[in-house]
């Protein structure tokens, strides 16, 4: 009975609704992050391989700052600098390894356009993050508000926001969960709970900037996750291959996650199915939690995969950051 109650509580926490433990508004400032290294397996510290992934390192993160946690998406550069985004519109910048060129760790709320300031603070449930390294612009997907916003370099200001009818058709409590910008400038957005008749997830492929009013309507594709899982984040390896992070909650294992790869067709057409091929599964006794964020970085020609968990600002959950080398 106790385990059933835990699963029900976790299911409630996964809904993007106002929650008493979400931090209220605060200003930008420095951030102290405590970092504790962890083995991949709780029973055998020598285990470093899981599927197509080789474990490079993992850390439990904590901070005395009230706004830290709730991480739903992240970006990581080649030097290991992490830019994380919480599900309450909070940016966090830090590094897990000391380097002479590390930037100062910080925490700050996302900038908001004057016309949007009437929205309650808890409605800015930011779940997805994308970046264009050429222009240094960023895009954020908001699940409950069902809109995508573009931000200027360094997140200095919100430049544009757009709400699409294709996204408004998704459930408010399960819409924009995963978004990536591909190297050729296309964007792909996956719904968490916007299901099609065959059980696949409605997926939108935009030919350009989804926050731009001139961008044409997207193509509807269908993402088919591993059985029993739902997508929580996506990242483009290149213009044709995508990595997708998927989550499941069960009575037996509580949280488990899979990392899958999908191939985009050369000429996508409406209704095309993107079938996931599992690369690795994270389940006890391996590190497992509410994994929601996915990023890749390049280090000496090697693709590194970063996975982060959302602790829902609850004392019984953890913020875990894992780093793997990808072998394809």
From TrEMBL:
Residues 66-313 form the Phytase-like domain. It comes from the Bacteria. Pfam families: Phytase-like. This is Phytase-like domain-containing protein. It comes from Sphingobium vermicomposti.
